């Protein structure tokens, strides 16, 4: 497969006289893709029903004439102001009950039927017009579902749709009452129409209520997206993508991904480090201009799974962004490193966001490949360098990964609903284990929670998976490799109750979680083997104990292939355990120095130096922000 | 008096086939009491007017047949969903103006007449049916009044009732304007119907407005409760209790207690340490699995006063809870220690919450004596141990305490309304002095603010009492013991104005508070005798000064029996002052090491080790979580 | 000019029998001014249309008879309760959409036409009655515009007025769409009536939308004030003031000031230190009882500019206040020091707030010159001392300042709208530079952003001025002195877009800001000359570089008279740069020890010791809170 570069472009922001020169410069530095259109509804349809396609025809034509391929976005993330006159109740409502108004973007409730119809209407018009365009080589649906906390809406439309969804799922109020345990505080319902949304209750609502509301809300996103993909497929053979955002877990990306051809994500390493990563201040300081060394890789591996092998970066940070608490300038070389790292993880394309920095509106402080005055910004040259390097490289062959790590959106909802301890967050836990694997130099596959065949991997991890799926449990039963399950895995039913018999109920493992405790960060539970559990530990009754805590409880249960981990290990404990388990699984490891990471394709070993200074390791020296590749021994 | 154990049980949560075995196991480990019913309204009355008593008849019968005594709770904390169709406006409204919806518990406004009538109706039905049951040996009204911030409601019902309450209290708007000082910012009212609730004003509302709203809101709780106790007494001779929550000051517990036979409270030592205690991080870390060494004792002494000698623990933490920021597992032995400490302070009964951990709904992560799978949890065995130990003990005789400490809910409202410095909190101040007394090994009585006879005690403390009551002031005037008043005591009128002549206006003490200052924590005012004032200090004009600050102001005023304390002493200053005053009062003290506490009954000295390691003191060694008792010299 | 003292007095708060004695004591200690009336609307007009002037006639008469001059306040900050019956929709609405209710003060929306008419009505009545009173020697409009966040209102009245304002400004929706860049996210409007207020959007609204809403809101304040000044001038020759609050930037003080004769401000040094100053904890601790050594001076210099030379302190803190997080007692001597410092900066009058501490309502914990029992509080004696000292002093002659510092309210709005980094605040930046100048012992003039003649000063600073005005840019072009512009100066258009060509576009300076970055506090950018940039730095293309960062970018651009500063300097860098620039400008400097400050009038050098201990410097020793003056060499 050929690796390609691209860029996001907004012809509607610039005088038409500038388009041809822009297109020529894009082609000149070796870009292949140009994404357009995803926020331009008010220019496609300035008044209800009055379509203006000419400008977009000409824009796509100009780009195509320069040899560029177009990714055409549906503009449904930005319904124009006139839409509100037609559908005054289409706006989402926030958890405090406030209507979320017009004036930015994503101002719609996924459950609003009228807006769903408008979305279908504009997508139909767009697909009819451009579905056979020779220049439109891919599609994007909407933009960054869930961004700005837009999945959970507490509107009347959502309430009505939730009641219908519950009626479908439970068929009778009695069944729902039983499933939720509504007897608990006299919360029984006599009719689905009595059920409100779970916000604004006096104290916490029933966690089953929240869990179903989260499932429902995720389903509404998938439903909304599927309408668009169905329409586009009727008019176009080009592949369809959506651009997911980093560390968003409010809807099931696998469910949406099932309707896509390509998964893509928007990679803003510095913004994410600043605004959505738990890390010590020193870590944040050290990597402020490079990003966390594993955050991008995690998402690369995640979206490779979501896209069933096909994935892109649809928006790549090229310089400072405008939306994080602090917005430093990337270290010179990072715009190149980030792209190469994506390619090493199997990306088909990396598109920088955006071509030229817009001097107006919300993102005027967001850098582009060009400055507002059209002069090249630093990433312009780095993109050109990557394009040049790509030209000289062979096509990619994907590499097998020895380790698989389960990622499950429903578990994120479960623990967001019921963390039990302030520090327990699902993404944080999975990412913590991912980092441990990366520190050992491993290729990792992230896998769906219902994966039914584990044979491709020598080791499988499923930390914090609230409910292990039937296919996964069945696969575990016959699995020959090493598996590490826990903490907190399989500890809930799908309606967020505790199963009896008690967790983890793993096939062939005599282990019962008798008690759990959440712990403040300053109250670690030391392990006899070194390191400690932090934040969370479980007291298990178990037959076969591989390791214990200093206070005498099983810490790692099972001495064969299947292991249950009874707590949240700190780095020291994690590194030790993972090294040991890799040894048993026959996976060679190479512990890496801080900030240095590696990733193999089938033929090539890539090295990435996230440190702000050079690093020397095993005879190689990489400069700050350096990338190195070397052929793998065959 | 015989000491007893009990448990909270929810037959409606479990198959009826399990009830008899549950009852047998309760009896088997020596439990006496079972609390039932307090959240079961939807099962007692599934539809308006359709009563289902059979299951409850059988549940009570089964428990009674096993020799257990039932505490029957009125279910008014959890009105069923159908109630909202009858009374759509019964919900409380929060301080931001948001209606607090159905879906958890305590979803009612105390001022709603319709709901008051429904409450009277269900309690009447319950009392009629079970008032003469041989097994119902006690009652509980509602559940944890005020929990989840439910006393102050900003609903229309509350607004109307508040206006009526004000009209009763002031008779004319002119009188109210004068009392509140409404001339201040042209806030005068021409009619009671012009008066709104004090939330959502542009800047702070008149503190008198807040103070009266808090008084009114407290009265509404007492009124609501009194309706229930009046009904129950018409049908039953069994004593009536309510279960108060820890560190709740939003309503006057003495006022509600006046209508009860027994005060009880719900003791969650680890949850309270984690979520409602000001303490240094190291203190919280050290006692994370044991609870604060004085927090329980304080409430024991408080509810002994509220119950006029008769008090219980209605809910005792048996393991991790589900609602604090972090929820550790108690140290082995603590479920025993906590029960014994309650008995040492005079509890008649200690009931663990709950029998079996429910695997569903909001409290599924709250431990019980049994696990969800009915296997014993650790506290099951500790409860059995306590029962066994109780069996071998003599009955309790209460001990006299040498020291009395005033606790006054109106002062909590005064300083919540007008803290003047961020760190000034009434409970915090009183508890701070309580801890100082406990460190000296003393028995303490907490007393009402209108106590008229102080002769039972050698020393009396009234810190931060905003308005000293007439009876208390009269008693002080002839008091022969040592009294310590202040800081901030008697500094406000009942409508939260500053009295002129200026405070503290103590009988026989020449002292005028000329100025006060609130201080950041890092700005202590050193005392010449050692230690310092923190958070708060007063500059007094005084004739008779026992001790001064390093900057030359009186710190402790009075050299006879009555003393005025002109600031918030730190631990060092407090220990020194209290030791000195105890010496003058003829009270022997025994300074205790950290985490070790003692409490005497008439015949026995109890020792409690709250430390996570053994402690040796004066020849005794107690293990971690250890309890020791020894006969008192007669 | 003669310097005078005064006090704020509320005759309506006290029995009439007390007025004469109060007046006599005021006169006795040498006060000149008494401010009255500004919160007394409910006593002037107890019912709509029923005026009660008698009491105010007598109060003014009593004060006048004692030789005092009256400042009469319009009572429009406190409309009575009956006003709401006439204008139910006059209340402001907060950013969350909640109506801000009656019960404190400032409960009106500046855009409400009905309330504007009521304001005109009461001011007309007041001006007619007292416009020729021999005792009313000055006026105050309203009270502390903007206090309690009252400029930005999200009411229906504001929405309507904003649409009108936009229609006036842009004439067509197309022009507005272009100016705001509404194409960005399909935010185009087809009509002004489609435009809502910018709160409660899904993510941030267009910064241009916010910027215009802030401009509009500021205009509404000026409009409201101008109605009052126009009316008063028709009936009175006495000068008109308004009392501004500290660190308020929500409206343009210069615009309001243009309609006043005198600018005044309310100086609460300890409250401001506690609640509105960014400073290290140790700084706040050290100056907790004295206030920041520069905060008052900054406002003195600001209001001297706003008042075009005529300015007062209308409210001077006399002791602890009631509204800050902590409220310590001022160090003895500070009430004198603060007054003298104001006089040294050119104040005509300093009025203490308030005469007697009110024992009731919101400010009962706010000290006065008298205690609630009429005994003198410490500031009573300090005020008397100042009065005595003033009697012996010559009249003031203002001194020329060598340095001018631009202060621009629109820049505060720009950076509040778009800080780009959490720590970027306009006031903070300007005040940071002001402090650097003060540490060098300089007299400083604060100047308007449209100052057209810079020749009076040897050095001019314009940090963070978002848009440099045409007159200022023209003045810069011919300026012979040293100018220091930046960081972030001239980086925005008036509608908050980035200008192209890129900033700073300074006449005669080859400099382009190619990139900016906001930085966390722990990521400084060291400078080769010592010190560092913190929070903010810019990467510039520049011909003429005076100094660079350690990573090789221009830090200070220009080697002639005009300099551009490419970051936010820390104290070390700032002190070094300012010393150097002063040297080039021929301004002698004298670096001062911590907490010691100086200010010259034309004839006298004043020294102020803000330290809590004595300081010795260049042969002078000042006690804690000490003031020293010495003749300047002619
Ligand atoms: Zn994006
Ligand atoms: Zn409870
Ligand atoms: Zn004021």
UniProtKB/TrEMBL annotation, chains A, B, C:
EC number: 3.2.1.23
Keywords carried by this UniProt record: Glycosidase, Hydrolase, Metal-binding, Zinc
A Pfam family matched in the record: Glyco_hydro_42
All copies of domain Beta-galactosidase trimerisation, residue ranges: 401-587
EC class (word): hydrolase
Sites where the protein binds substrate: 105, 143, 323
GO cellular component, one term: beta-galactosidase complex
Gene3D superfamilies (UniProt xref): 3.40.50.880, Glycosidases (3.20.20.80)
A GO BP annotation: carbohydrate metabolic process
Record keyword Nucleus present: no
One Gene Ontology molecular-function label: beta-galactosidase activity
Record-linked InterPro entries: Beta_galactosidase_Trimer, Class_I_gatase-like, GH, Glyco_hydro_42, Glyco_hydro_42_N
Catalytic activity as recorded in UniProt: Hydrolysis of terminal non-reducing beta-D-galactose residues in beta-D-galactosides
Residue ranges of domain Glycoside hydrolase family 42 N-terminal in the record: 8-391
Positions of the catalytic residues: 144, 315
Annotated positions binding Zn(2+): 109
SUPFAM superfamilies per record: (Trans)glycosidases, Class I glutamine amidotransferase-like
Signal peptide positions on this chain: none
Superkingdom assignment: Bacteria
Record-stated family: Belongs to the glycosyl hydrolase 42 family.
Protein name: Beta-galactosidase
Organism: Aliigemmobacter aestuarii
